[in-house]
Write a structure and sequence with these properties.
seven-stranded antiparallel beta sheet; 23% strand; Rossmann fold
């Protein structure tokens, strides 16, 4: 999971300011690194480790000039928390290209060991975007050489995107800018990762932009927005003509975790409101709660922030008071996307503080978006009990996580999941709650589908181990898990030797 924005503005404008605003809007999607690249007569790049506010200042923003640019905030899956892995990436030869992405290349190891080594290509990082960039650039250059052309046409761009789809497996949404040529946007054949394209007109002329969430375009005033479809590519040429092509024919399987956790509630993804979907999650949970005959609490309290809408829906459906009982320190990052267990555990202690009067002598129902490793949940339950709660119940707006994700979520191994080889009662005991309920998987899917019935199914791989791309093998999962654990610093020295 990462966040990005690409902008192609009118001649003579600088787009870096809008890109900066867009990155602030998707800071929740990545907190390890940030970067912006623009172009005038040459590429201008600034990227580094940290939050957007930490990486950019007035001095480096002033040199990010040009009407063509890309910005990115990083959450590492493949690749570590190192400066050289920060995006965007760019090439100056044989074709000038800048690129950023959200997602994960599942056959990254095979491409590096086979395709790239065989072509004597050497990568500068361990970030999988570099693979997509080189495949795209190589295909485009060979296409131009084959027809002895210098002008890049829409068909050339689409040929290069097809080559990416053929060689690069996994889930990814991508933006690329080509100086003097235009901007390219494409989404993986199954449409697992979201990408939104938009346009606006100002006194300066026509603007085109794409981003990983609609809120990025909203804050920058883009009015006409569309969801790029699965296997679809959009090319805006130097004449500001928009070319669109469907380049793959696979079933659409967007990641359900976008609506569960990742996206901001004010975003629309694949024409589905994140806010309304989470409310439907909560109402479905309430119906399950009643069907199970679960004990009724005095109040429903969200674990902020992404479960608020669901908690409100659940409280309304149950006819119970909704209360804010946990205050979040907004200067602490999202614990789920921190790079290792140690930082997750330490941040939980600083992130939340209970409002004691909402817990003393009361039976409370906590609502969270998901329970992954259980460390955060366990600590919060303990904190709530210390605040005086008599009974603590817990509801998750998603089902138990049981399978690793090779598509860009930091769930490296099934051994990390608290639900692995445990019954619901055993998980409740481990977390220290008096009653635990998970949202039924089909109820979760139906709640999201209600926003857009044209989407028949969502990617549920982390809940059922069924990978929609059909190419995820045990070997690939093992390689991805090893890479992620190595980058977190969680492998033993012997394992590191094997990895090397």
């Amino acid at each position: 999971m990462c966040g990005f924005i690409g902008i192609y503005g009118p001649d003579g404008v600088d787009v870096a300011g809008e890109i900066y605003e867009g990155l602030l809007a998707v800071q929740h999607r990545g907190q390890d690194a940030a970067g912006i690249i623009t172009f005038t007569d040459s590429f201008h790049l600034k990227k580094g480790l940290g939050f957007v506010l930490e990486v950019f200042d007035e001095k480096n923003m002033s040199r990010l000039q040009g009407n063509l640019g890309v910005g990115h905030v990083r959450y590492p899956t493949i690749g570590g928390n190192r400066g050289e892995d920060a995006q965007p990436f760019h090439l100056t030869y044989p074709i000038g290209i800048a690129m950023a992405h959200n997602g994960n290349v599942s056959n990254y190891a095979e491409l590096v060991q086979g395709f790239f080594s065989g072509n004597r290509t050497r990568l500068n990082s361990s970030c999988d975007l570099e693979v997509i960039l080189f495949v795209f650039a190589r295909a485009l250059n060979e296409r131009l050489r084959s027809r002895e052309a210098t002008e890049i046409l829409a068909d050339d761009i689409f040929h290069a995107v097809r080559e990416v789809f053929d060689l690069v497996k996994g889930a990814y949404s991508v933006v690329a800018t080509l100086p003097d040529v235009g901007m390219v946007v494409f989404r993986d054949p199954f449409g697992i990762k979201p990408i939104i394209f938009g346009e606006k007109t100002t006194a300066e002329g026509s603007w085109f932009a794409c981003a990983s969430e609609s809120v990025v375009l909203d804050v920058n005033g883009y009015k006409k927005t569309i969801d790029v479809g699965p296997g679809e590519a959009i090319f805006v040429d130097s004449e500001r003509q928009v070319h669109k092509a469907k380049l793959a024919d696979k079933p659409h399987r967007p990641c359900i975790f976008e609506w569960v956790y990742f996206a901001r509630p004010d975003s629309m993804l694949d024409d589905i409101s994140v806010y309304k979907t989470r409310g439907r999650f909560g109402r479905a949970l309430a119906r399950q709660w009643k069907q199970e005959g679960a004990p009724m609490p005095n109040s429903v309290i969200p674990i902020p922030d992404s479960s608020r809408d669901a908690a409100l829906g659940m409280a309304t459906e149950l006819g119970l008071p909704y209360r804010e009982g946990l205050v979040k320190n907004r200067y602490i990052g999202r614990t789920f996307i921190m790079p290792n267990q140690k930082s997750r555990r330490s941040s939980v202690r600083r992130k939340l503080n209970p409002i004691r009067i909402e817990f003393e002598g009361r039976d409370v129902l906590l609502v969270d978006d998901s329970i992954v490793r259980g460390n955060t949940s366990k600590r919060i339950v303990q904190m709530v009990r210390e605040a005086g709660a008599r009974k603590v119940y817990l509801a998750s707006t998603s089902p138990p996580l049981v399978a690793p994700c090779p598509y860009g979520i930091d769930m490296a191994s099934k051994t990390e999941f608290i639900a692995t080889n445990r019954t619901n009662e055993e998980i409740a005991e481990e977390l220290g709650v008096d009653h635990l309920i998970y949202l039924d998987r089909e109820a979760m899917n139906e709640a999201a589908r209600e926003g857009n019935p044209e989407i028949e199914n969502f990617c549920n791989a982390c809940f059922n181990g069924e990978y929609p791309t059909g190419d995820i093998t045990a070997e690939r999962l093992k390689a991805i898990a090893g890479d992620r654990c190595l980058n977190r610093g969680e492998l033993r020295e012997s394992d590191k030797a094997v990895k090397a």
